[in-house]
Amino acid sequence: EKHEFEDADGAPGIGRILSVRASDEVSAKFAFRAYEIKGELKLNLKQTLRLASVGILQSCAVQNFINYATHSTGVLLRAYDFEKIASADGKVALDIKPMPNGEFGVYAGKRLLSVAGICQDAELKACCSSKVVLLEANYTAPLIIAKAVNENKGLKGDEHVYRSSRGSEPKLRLGLDLLFRLLLKNKAVSLYAGTQKISNALEPLIVGFSEKEINSMIGAQIPRDKIVKILKRLGFDVGVEADLITAKVPPFRHDIVNSHDVCEEIVRIVGIDNIAAAPLSFYEKNRLNDTYVNLQNGRKLRSKAAAVGFFECVHYVFDDGKALQSLGFAPCKVKILNPINGELDALRPTLINHLLESAERNLKNSRRSVKLFELGEVFDESGAQSLRLGFIASGLKAEPSIAAGAKPAAVDFLYFANLIQSVIGKFNVRLPGENLKFLSEFEQAQIEQSGEIVGFIGRVDYAVEAGRDLDKSYLCEIDFSKLKFENIVVDAYSKFPSVSRDLSILVPSGMRFEQIKGCIDALKIEALKEFIPSDLYSDESLGDSKSLTIRLVFQDLQKTLCDEEVAGFTDKILAALSSELGLGLR
């Protein structure tokens, strides 16, 4: 806005009849002028045809002049009937205030005259009968207009919304100058000197990018000098520092917000036909992540569990807080403010309670053999979430049938542990560091895989079984995140026959087989493929000791073992048991 419009000599100053006030929050631009109509206003034929061709020709000459200036410059203009908004002393005091959704309202006292860029009070609009016209030019950012119209459905926009929401011209002087030049040619108009302006500086948008970035988007090599030259010709203020190019976007280019928009402008000038075509290169991105891997591993576990006879059940992540406390689980500190009911008032720390309830329900519905599992989320005391895998087997090993017999045997620890091993793979059991309250103290253990404790297994305590009307039942719960899902590696097998030997030794009644196993494993005899306890015998003659028979299986990959070699291995094992544990032959 380099020059001020020269008003007619002798015209009264606009400052004498108009005052404009705006709060510091107003970020829009406004300009006000006034003129007096002393006769008839008329457009010439060229101007009339132009308005008619774009469909905005009206019967009111005042509005036609404003529409012509708005259409020609892009500046949003409005006209008010001065006499309708003036106070008793013949003056107008305007207030510009921000509204709830970011738009700006123009008030005369308490009356809303217009919402900038959106709508105007139709009763106050200048018409052919108006004697003094107050002209307003305004600019508001398009995003503010779009948000205001979208948020407030009761705010009905007029013809200005189409322009303002797409970006009007922020240089208000362009529209004002054109309109007043048109009016000065008409002797029926008397202008008021001066311009009342509310013009807060608009922060220009600066977009940074590099030559490499633009060329990668275009798919062709455009020299940096040519990029800078094109942008300067388009009105951008361009700066170059090392590899970075910064472009200050002209205020009227509301469509430029990032480097992709700048690239579009460069392509438009260079010409899409002048950019050589290149074959499309398609590279599939690897989408394998922890979430996908866990999903697939969970599916495999569910499939294996179903294959060995377990039925899957799904429960809420909410549980009965009182029942959980009776089982010995600490309540979660994260409370449920609006529980579904009194029995689902806490986040579950375990799958056990739900599995026990489901087993009880099945047994009461005449099922004799119940095998259930669940893969679900649990929450610790602080509310941290984790995934667990739970199993329960209750009652008989199978439902009575001709094939299974009238009454199959009840489930036992070894049977249940073998089922779990078929699902999660081979594992060892260890004595628990602390007895679990809901499991029998005589039949409970920790599950160990690859040297890490992953869960627990054991028989349900007699008191819990009796309180829930359960038959003999076994439980298992495993931390899913600690399971090892490694590829199976096939070991070489021997074509030569194996040789087995039974070794009967006297052991104290309180000794665990785990000690014996550790002693034999420490010898690292390659030919020893397997050793398992096969018999346990006791009588009065043995006193506090028991006779334990261990079956040793030897096999070599390269040859058939002879008796002397097998005897040497056996003697080595006996010597180790004797020296380290004090055990001898029966």
Q: Could you explain the architecture of this structure?
A:
The chain is an alpha+beta fold and 586 residues long. The chain folds into four domains: 14-199, Phenylalanyl-tRNA Synthetase, Chain B, domain 3 (3-Layer(bba) Sandwich), CATH 3.50.40; 206-274, Phenylalanyl-tRNA Synthetase, Chain B, domain 1 (2-Layer Sandwich), CATH 3.30.56.10; 290-482, BirA Bifunctional Protein, domain 2 (2-Layer Sandwich), CATH 3.30.930.10; 499-585, Alpha-Beta Plaits. It is 29% helix and 27% strand. The protein has a seven-stranded mixed sheet with strand order 14-17-18-22-21-20-19, sandwiched between helices. Strands 1-4-5-6-7 form a five-stranded mixed sheet, with no helix packed on it. Strands 2, 3, 8, 9 and 10 form a five-stranded antiparallel sheet that branches. A hairpin with a 3-residue loop joins strand 6 (111-115) and strand 7. Helix 2 crosses helix 6 (172-184).
Describe the structure in brief:
By secondary structure, the protein is of the alpha+beta class.
Please describe the structure with a list of short key phrases separated by commas or semicolons.
seven-stranded mixed beta sheet; 26 strands; 4 domains; disordered N terminus; Phenylalanyl-tRNA Synthetase, Chain B, domain 1; five-stranded mixed beta sheet; Phenylalanyl-tRNA Synthetase, Chain B, domain 3; 586 residues; BirA Bifunctional Protein, domain 2; single chain
